[in-house]
Design goal:
The protein is an all-alpha fold. The protein has one domain. It contains 4 helices and no strands. Helix 1 runs antiparallel to helix 2 and helix 3 runs antiparallel to helix 4. The protein binds protoporphyrin IX containing FE. The site of protoporphyrin IX containing FE (HEM) has 20 residues, from helix 1, helix 2, helix 3 and helix 4. The site of protoporphyrin IX containing FE has 20 residues, from helix 1, helix 2, helix 3 and helix 4.
Length: 127
């Protein structure tokens, strides 16, 4: 599959991930029972799987070795951090205050990942 099409899928699923996470975080803050809806527990995982699959396919199609590109290593570490912070925000954080802080940190991490992707720099705008 052409690199450009994979990138389109990747970026499209990034927007969906962001929208779904923002929505779930707001439901968490409001103690909404909708957080437990079946589709809410399934669709984000399907989307995230597609996001990551497209990312890996891009590395293969573009002959990109993450070890040779520090910004790609930053994205992999950033993604793992986002998964951890997101789980703490939506499920595992013990108090509402902690979950809210994890939520804010997860949103900041997505922002960082997007900045890294656009600039291809580990510290966007600097190096
Ligand atoms: C939640 C996690 C991620 C977010 C928010 C994200 C975000 C983005 C965005 C916004 C772009 C488009 C940048 C542009 O305007 O050119 C992009 C491109 C890209 N991302 Fe991700 N990404 C994520 C995870 C990953 C991972 C884990 C990898 C693999 C290590 C990856 C590899 C790439 C590659 C290879 C491109 C194409 C760069 C180019 O050719 O311009 N991304 N990403």
């Amino acid at each position: 599959m052409a690199y450009d099409l994979l990138k389109l899928i990747h970026v499209g699923t990034v927007y969906i991930t962001f929208g779904l996470f923002l929505t779930r975080g707001i439901w968490m803050l409001l103690d909404s029972p909708r957080l437990q809806d079946r589709w809410v527990r399934v669709v984000p995982h399907l989307n995230d799987t597609l996001l990551l699959t497209a990312a890996i396919a891009m590395l293969v199609a573009g002959g990109l070795n993450p070890l040779a590109h520090p910004w790609l290593i930053a994205k992999i570490i950033g993604l793992l951090l986002y998964i951890y912070l997101g789980t703490m925000a939506l499920k595992r954080g013990r108090t509402k205050t902690r979950r809210a802080l994890y939520f804010a940190a997860a949103l900041a991490t997505i922002g960082y990942l997007i900045a890294v992707a656009v600039t291809k720099q580990v510290i966007p705008g600097v190096i």
